[in-house]
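Lab channel / #folding
Pinned by the channel admin:
"Please post every new chain as: sequence first, then the structure tokens as a reply. Keep commentary short and put observations after the output so the thread stays searchable."

First post following the new format, from NK:
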Amino acid sequence: MKIGVDCNPLFDEKKGIGWYLFYILEKFSFLSRETDQFHLFWSSFRKDTPEIPSLLLNRRRVVMQRLLPFPRTLGLLFSRVFPYFPGCLLPPLDLVHFPNYTAFPVKKAKVVITVHDLVFKLFPETVDLKVKLVLNTFLKRSIKLADRIITVSKSTAKDLLYFFPEAEGKIKTIYQGVDRKIFRPMFTEEEDLYSMLGTTEFILSLSTLEPRKNIHTLLKAYIILLREKGPKVPDLVLIGSKGWKIEGFFKEYENLPEELKRKIKFPGYLPREMLPKIYSACRVFAFPSLYEGFGLPVLEAMACGAPVIASKASSIPEVGGNAVIYVDPSNPEELAKSINNVLDSNSLREELKTKSLKRAEIFSWEKTAQETFELYKEALGKG
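Reply from TO:
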């Protein structure tokens, strides 16, 4: 097979979609045949190249191409006027996978897209205007172009069919995975934790700091805890880079008394090799997101044996199963009570840790890649 893959998500700080693509490409190096060829392309002003897994480069025939010297969105716009541009710049391919929602036509090639969530439809007020514009303009057309559509949860599949019934018959749900060589229980010396976070006893949350992740509710819950239990409550660590429309949250934070502000830490974006140490050391991992297509941080935290409290919204219960305490994401009092229950009970914390590790075993990137590669073969009539 000659397989094309849009690799734009592999630039810069990889987040959910970037890691999703990185890992399936890495696992393809074992699943595919030596005769299979991968054509990896991207569109960007930038002169550098995306981070391609070295295993794929070393084990399989790989061709890399900067398709266009300007952003991918411009290529999508051109394809509405000139149907086979920029697809005509690609060599003959059997199948092309667009892992980030939107696609353009590629002559004679089967098209696969991955749809990660429908947050731009369900919670449009939490989504960057540019992202909303791109998805509202191009997703419907991409669904029509697609021969197969991957969703990363059944929740996303349900949402997709609600807003785009034309996707009927094309959808396959393939869950994401976790790298258990990296995300596993780890012990870290207190001085190392302190150098990373400025604290050793902490409640953890990890996400891009943006409205959809609902960190303002977590902040309210934390303030409730502090008022009820005093300064002995562990610090709150919010890991993640600043996202869109976060100014209101930081304005709320800046208005807190200094003694409260000192207990809230913002380490920013951290390299993934640091995360297992932090997940493993936290007293509780809190993830009150309003909506997730999958909820990768929940799975990573479980794989490290963290006790998890999370929103009962969207796909998160599919990931967490019976290993997670679920809360109403709009209710800071409920979130505060659940965190307090875990902090106060060693037995509950140990029970959640055991359940987390067992639940995480269900998910693997090998399984994600295997099911994705089988879908390619089905789309080509080789399944």
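NK: The chain has two domains: 2-177+365-379, 190-360.
TO: also worth noting, The chain has a mean pLDDT of 94.
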